[in-house]
Amino acid sequence: MRDVAAAAGVSLKTVSRVVNGESFVRPDTAERVRDAIARLGFQRNDLARTLRGGGRTRSIGLIIEDVANPFYSQIARGVEDVARAGGRLVISGSSDEDPARELLLIRSLCERRVDGLLIVPSQTGDPRRRAELIAGTPAVFLDRPADDPAADTVLIDNLGGARTAVDHLLAHGHRRIACLVDLPEIFTARQRHQGYLEALAAHGVQADPALVRTGRHDVRGAGHAMTELLALPDPPTAVFAGNNLLTVGALRAIGAAGTRTALVGFDDVELADLLATPVTVIAHEPADMGRQAAELLEGRIRGDTGPPARILLPTRLVARGSGEIPPG
Amino acid sequence: MRDVAAAAGVSLKTVSRVVNGESFVRPDTAERVRDAIARLGFQRNDLARTLRGGGRTRSIGLIIEDVANPFYSQIARGVEDVARAGGRLVISGSSDEDPARELLLIRSLCERRVDGLLIVPSQTGDPRRRAELIAGTPAVFLDRPADDPAADTVLIDNLGGARTAVDHLLAHGHRRIACLVDLPEIFTARQRHQGYLEALAAHGVQADPALVRTGRHDVRGAGHAMTELLALPDPPTAVFAGNNLLTVGALRAIGAAGTRTALVGFDDVELADLLATPVTVIAHEPADMGRQAAELLEGRIRGDTGPPARILLPTRLVARGSGEIPPG
DNA sequence: TTGAAAGCGCTAACAG
DNA sequence: CTGTTAGCGCTTTCAA
């Protein structure tokens, strides 16, 4: 910028005025400055700008489990849309459910002075350490609650969704219903597991612990678990799969075993409608979760000082076939 | 930092030393400083640090078409893995194939002084404007070439993949093979279309223009096109779908029409193996493309000054069923 | 309408 | 081992 000023024969401040489109610059002066800018290929340094302005970096941080998981990438898209409208960029990072990695990301993002943080909190770490790092930066939690009751949070109705799924299977006559869920540390997994148990209890069906497989975190793990379940002496006639990855794993195992096992999955999955037996799911809108969280954050960044928001997003059962298969 | 220095009764520079883990600080002094840091909740300001150091922001920009499209989100994951290893964060943005949006993103990212740029270039804008903005920032192009022959580029073997797909259908006896491709401005779409034509020509099959539908950019558009094709007086017995979204659209239309139309799709899609008729695809590794591009960029950032790299990633045909359906 | 000076928060270079 | 000084590139404040 100094060079531009020299080239245009004006002061630093005048260049600054032109670059920022402030008024009170004579058109011909402005023209000369713009020429110099073009000639020198000058680009304003946003770091210096933000530093001096004491202002915003016009960026937000997004910490999710895995950018490549469609559930999270849809969230990311919703977040981006809102951030864009607010003139902000999104710096996203995958925590891979590793608390150390999460803390590292939070620290990096805060040190970069992002205007705010959107976090799907990993749940195996120490919540206080996280809270300490975040201190001062507006933050909204998605998909899972933070420990902090004062934090804005956007969740899905996990309990209700899971109950609906299992109710549906019970209504179709199933009594031996398996349950595949993620790591027990993860809030959504616990909620969905609980929803499963509650639905059974509400129908007076005795839960069989042998039919529950927790701690399945990927497609392969879910596949193995499902294969084992199907090999039981008294196998389940139906299964509730606790998320998109587990649904895929369960479907593969059922396909390989060649059984007519009913299935309802939590999260919608691409092509679910085109499978040999189209997949019944508990659907919801991840992009909407991202949008709502980002909007909440936007408000906080702008200085909103209302009470903590806690949004619960609805789910809906989409019956496509796999959930309507009758028992054996 | 000033406050920390005051609280600890030391100079600014000493605090800086402790924060940055430099040596030559007496343990008890360091301890006092660390106490003050913890008490005051101090966090180093990375903007100031980078500004003064004249150094890197330890971030890279990633511009793709849509974060939520699995093809791109897998790329993003590959990029992130390499960036992480290099201690960098990824700022990603969706251009939505809009050149204005792309330029805006490039400008924002350069003004923020990202260390480098990874770009899937939209192809409807002016390449010179893009080049001007990028000037000075290392950049690598993915999936599509930039106009610039001096630019590092990582591409998939679109031509070869498309030819393989159509060869496969021809080998199974098809002669009326439809072709669904994206907007003709897009490099990959043109290449895949050309591969289709070349395969037909190589087998001495006369191409029927009525069977080619270009300019399909989403699932719905592909669905409509496919429905029209199937309604022709002399419909195709097979179709080559030019990308993941078009494959999904075509599958939906074929499913709705209830025909036994053969299909080979470019890009692999989740659950393709579990469809009523499992989907034969031209598969490749998007994450690997992201990784390779990020590694190239990492090299440039570190000062690599070799000749421009141009990497062509292989594809492979995964025969699962839909590509092996014989003609009607 | 323009410019000079001060300073954002930090680190590099050089003293002590 | 610790402190002082200068300055990264910009904007803010005040003066001309």
Automatic annotation (TrEMBL), chains A, B:
MF GO annotations: DNA binding
Entry keyword DNA-binding: yes
PANTHER family: HTH-TYPE TRANSCRIPTIONAL REGULATOR GALS, LACI-RELATED TRANSCRIPTIONAL REPRESSOR
Source organism of the structure: Actinomadura fulvescens
Alphabetized Pfam families for the sequence: LacI, Peripla_BP_3
SUPFAM superfamilies: lambda repressor-like DNA-binding domains, Periplasmic binding protein-like I
Keywords: DNA-binding, Transcription, Transcription regulation
Domain HTH lacI-type intervals: 1-53
Protein name per its UniProtKB record: LacI family DNA-binding transcriptional regulator
InterPro entries reported in the protein's UniProt record: HTH_LacI, LacI/GalR-like_sensor, Lambda_DNA-bd_dom_sf, Peripla_BP_I
